[in-house]
Amino acid sequence: MEIRDAHFPGRAPLDAYGNGGFRFANMSHRGSLLCVPSGIYGWDLNVAAEFSEEAFQKVFEERADIEVLLIGTGKDLVPLPASLKEKFREAGIIADPMSTGAAVRTYNVLLSEDRAVATALLAVD
């Protein structure tokens, strides 16, 4: 797994999703996103089958500032592997998989409430 060079330093609500990308902070990004307290990063994943501990390394690095991780698994909900769910539990992070659309909406609400939230979002067409 590799975090792309694309990086927005800071937190911002997500204005739109679809067509293979996202819009936020008057910018657009094609591909998946990882939104953590240190910023918004391009995420080099395309399908939930690629989820691994390594894919979420940035989340684990920033775990002290994350209580809830919303995981957008694409158009449909895809459950997390039990071993990955256990790694999040050990790190003190509530990991909640859901469709990407639901994750975007929930992230925006929790962000507006200034909650310790992060999100990992697979892009959808």
TrEMBL record:
It comes from Roseibium sediminicola. It comes from the Bacteria. This is Mth938-like domain-containing protein. InterPro entries: MTH938-like_sf (IPR036748), NDUFAF3/AAMDC (IPR007523). Gene3D superfamilies: MTH938-like.
